Amino acid sequence: MKLKLVVIGNGMAGMRTVDELLQLAPERYQITVFGAEPHGNYNRIMLTPVLFGAKSIAEIMIHDFDWYRKHGITLHCGTDKAVVGVDRSRRCVVAKDGTEAEYDYLLLATGSLPLMLDIPGRDLRGVLGFRDIADVQTMIAAAASKTHAVILGGGLLGLEAANGLLQRGMQVSVVNRAGHLLNKQLDRQAAGFLQQQLAGKGIDFHLGCTISRILGEDGQIQAVQLSNGEVLAADLLVMSTGIKPNIALAERIGLECERGVIVDDLMQTSDPRIFSVGECVQHRGELFGLVAPVYEQAKVCARQLSGHAGSIYQTLSSATMLKVTGIDLFSVGDFEGDADCQVLQLIDHGLGVYKKIVLRGDIVVGVILYGDTSDSAWYLNLVKQKTPIAAIRDRLIFGQTPLAAAA
């Protein structure tokens, strides 16, 4: 008799865990999956190329409906299949339309929600996040018939939305509270290079301010007023000001939560029958928004569910690569440094190249590469493996290729 595994959340984290589990113990579970979107599991990271027009929705599917059938997995998907309750004593999950599924083990992978700031007028049509296929379809439809797009947030996702809408013919303005773009991934100097390049493509920037009011007529957005008083025309406002773990269900059913669902090193929640992975979790005080650590969690969780003990989750350095067409950008680790750090820099305005390496002693702790990211994998390994670089320090800024030639 197979054990019953129910997965709440049909996204990348939950389904990567299922993938790993099918490899480790294909016959161990009868698997049921609940997802609130009316699709199979797709690669959320690839929503940007869909917005650009470089990929179709079919091309970003990781698991189409046939895959679930082929593996004997029951998939309940769509808004009426969103899980609204879990009876932990009966070990039973209940969806919005009354669908029930019993479990021996439950995997909670509810992901995150876009932070929709509480700005007056945010309920107007044309105000949205950039989180799922429906958001992208709304943006593509707007670009076909409207002119002005405003993006609130100068982070990775905001810049990708800005570039995608620009490529679809809209006039795009980016509003960012911080004084420079990608302030979590770049220092001011690298951000200056980036802003210059994006402005050259036609994107308009309003930095060091935010949106104080959203203005509209007949329920449709028409403009935004900035905190400095300026008014920008807006047929579409994309809020890209971050994400927050989607923990409403976990809180409702009494799991221990702080900012996220608290998990231990085995990805187990406060209920030993319930595991959790992805952007909804909090592990040793940390939250997650990048795919690499989430996939690592999936691997650890699958080992626990398969009965192979001994694997624990440890947080790793995550690198950032920007997917805006024609821009090469990489950053990892502590790129600001502190009083105990030394900084190596190479700046070539003519070529538009900026390299910054932050050292603590003879260990690389942070790197920013702009304009030339050919050695990014090599630098990432130096950071992750804490490789002593004393012997190559004088050539470190030039990357791996000159080092190989000099050897």
From TrEMBL:
Stretch forming the signal peptide? none
Keywords per UniProt? FAD, Flavoprotein
Concerning InterPro entries, the annotation shows: FAD-bd_OxRdtase, FAD/NAD-bd_sf, FAD/NAD-binding_dom, FAD/NAD-linked_Rdtase_dimer_sf, Rubredoxin_C
Annotated NADH-rubredoxin oxidoreductase C-terminal domain residues: 319-387
Q: Which GO terms describe its molecular function?
A: oxidoreductase activity
Domain FAD/NAD(P)-binding stretches: 4-292
| Co-factor(s) | FAD
Pfam families, per database record:
Pyr_redox_2 (PF07992), Rubredoxin_C (PF18267)
Q: Which family does it belong to?
A: Belongs to the FAD-dependent oxidoreductase family.
Q: Any idea what this protein is called?
A: Assimilatory nitrite reductase large subunit
Query: What species is this protein from?
Result: Methylomonas koyamae
